[in-house]
Automatic annotation (TrEMBL):
The keyword rRNA-binding appears for this protein: no
Pfam families associated with the record: MFS_1 (PF07690)
Ranges that cross the membrane: 23-44, 56-75, 87-105, 111-129, 150-172, 192-215, 245-264, 284-303, 315-334, 371-392, 398-415
Tagged with keyword Transmembrane: yes
Topology of this chain in the membrane: Multi-pass membrane protein
Protein name from the UniProt record: Sugar MFS transporter
SUPFAM superfamilies attached to this UniProt entry: MFS general substrate transporter (SSF103473)
UniProt xrefs under NCBIfam families: gluP
Stated family: Belongs to the major facilitator superfamily. FHS transporter (TC 2.A.1.7) family.
Cell compartment(s), UniProt: Cell inner membrane
């Protein structure tokens, strides 16, 4: 994505009151990111029963949601160029509300493809919203404190992820859902599916109110800097493939997003597999999110004062391997706790992979950045591999899929990011 700055009039200076109001708005948006994204952990086991799905089929929830980031990548840029960044965020929130609206007829018909369509539309709106809102984290306050604001937004995101399954789960009465597993009573399944409607009506209302709030707000407009001269890049005869560390970085980020989604979105279903009821299991994603927040806090304190980014990535990858194997060879609450601790292992990967992949790429920074954003598709593909393994084996042994992935991340931290010649 291009470097961004405010239009000239916003550069003159903004009052601390305006900055604080802007930070509150952006914080609310990042909360929404987390709330909507990490609801998938609840939807996977819920729709698995309500729509009578196999384990593999249930993981198309994550596929439909995250594949939107790739499909909508070019659309996001065009939409923001047309509407502007501020109004584009309002439009994106409305798109997300339309996706949530599709859950109503989907619940009334118990038609799984319609649920997936709603998730794709919500993911599409979220892709536009993230593209627009991330630059505001930098421009709504002093540049020297941008890293602090980024950390605050990350914490807002994960707090929402911790709260979402608990809040929405209380509406869905998940403690009764397990009794319907394998039932032939269609009316009971219909009644279960209809429980989705009230909370999603609430989500629609919140999204529309946020859209109005952003539209009426005093957020500054943002515009992209002029595009780099393509001829100046071409003269160097360089392409992304000339930077192996960048290509490996894109693959590493693809893998990271996949293992992060597995850690967060499989834990409720895995808790049920380990013998916990829905009432208890719905709280498990909170453990994953709290682990990630702990990692953020450690990163804020330790990087780069006490540990370099690449060394933090090494530690996180090693923890990922250790916690995954711990989950595979233990049982009950201890095994589930190891999955939750994967949140800690994943917490510092995103901020570490980006600078390592972008190092020394010069005028291809935007091209590599765009590919890194598309790497979010790992959240669509890799959980399907977990679901396939869980379908032919069991949900515990399926976690073997993440062990070689964490080892690849470790390779990138140790050696991959240093490769400068193809």
């Amino acid at each position: 994505m291009a470097n961004l700055n405010t239009v000239e009039e916003t550069k003159v200076g903004r009052s601390s009151g305006d900055s604080n109001r802007s930070i509150i708005i952006i914080g609310a948006l990042f909360f929404i990111f987390g709330f909507v994204t990490w609801l998938n952990a609840l939807l996977i086991p819920y729709l698995k029963i309500a729509c009578e799905l196999t384990t593999f089929q249930s993981y198309f929830v994550t596929f439909a949601f995250y594949i939107a980031y790739v499909v909508m990548a070019p659309v996001s840029s065009r939409a923001l160029n047309y509407f502007g960044f501020k109004n584009g965020m309002s439009v994106a929130l409305i798109v997300m509300a339309l996706g949530a609206l599709l859950f109503i007829p989907a619940a009334m018909t118990r038609y799984y493809p319609l649920f997936l369509t709603g998730l794709f539309v919500m993911g599409s709106g979220l892709a536009i919203l993230q593209t627009a809102s991330n630059p505001y984290v930098t421009i709504v306050g002093p540049a020297e404190s941008a890293a602090k604001r980024i950390s605050i937004m990350g914490i807002c995101n994960k707090l929402a992820g911790a709260a979402a399954p608990i809040i929405i789960g209380s509406f869905l009465q998940l403690e009764k859902a397990e009794e319907l597993s394998g039932t032939t009573n269609a009316s009971a399944l219909d009644e279960m599916a209809l429980r989705v409607i009230p909370p999603y009506i609430g989500i629609i209302v919140v999204l529309l109110l946020l859209a109005l709030w952003v539209y009426k707000s005093s957020l500054p407009e943002v515009e992209a800097e002029e595009e780099e001269d393509e001829d100046s890049v071409a003269k160097g005869n360089k392409s992304v493939l000339d930077y192996p560390h960048a290509v490996l970085g894109v693959l590493t980020l693809f893998i990271y997003v996949g293992v992060e989604v597995i850690a967060a979105d499989t834990i409720i279903d895995y808790g049920i597999f380990q013998g916990f009821d829905f009432e208890t299991a719905r709280n498990f994603p909170t453990g994953t999110m709290v682990s990630m927040i702990m990692g953020y806090i450690i990163g804020i304190i330790a990087i780069p004062r006490y540990i370099k980014q690449e060394n933090a990535l090494k530690v996180c990858a090693i923890l990922g391997v250790a916690f995954s194997i711990g989950a595979i060879f233990t049982s009950g609450f201890i095994s589930v706790a190891f999955i939750a601790l994967l949140g800690l292992a994943n917490s510092l990967m995103w901020p570490a992979i980006w600078p390592l992949a972008l190092a020394d790429v010069g005028k291809l920074t935007k091209a590599v950045s765009s590919l890194l954003v598309m790497g979010i598709a790992g959240g669509a593909i890799i959980p399907l591999a977990y679901g396939a393994l869980a379908g032919v084996g069991d949900q515990q042994s399926a976690y073997w899929v993440v062990v070689p992935l964490y080892l690849f991340i470790l390779y990138y931290a140790v050696a991959g990011h240093k490769i400068r010649k193809a």
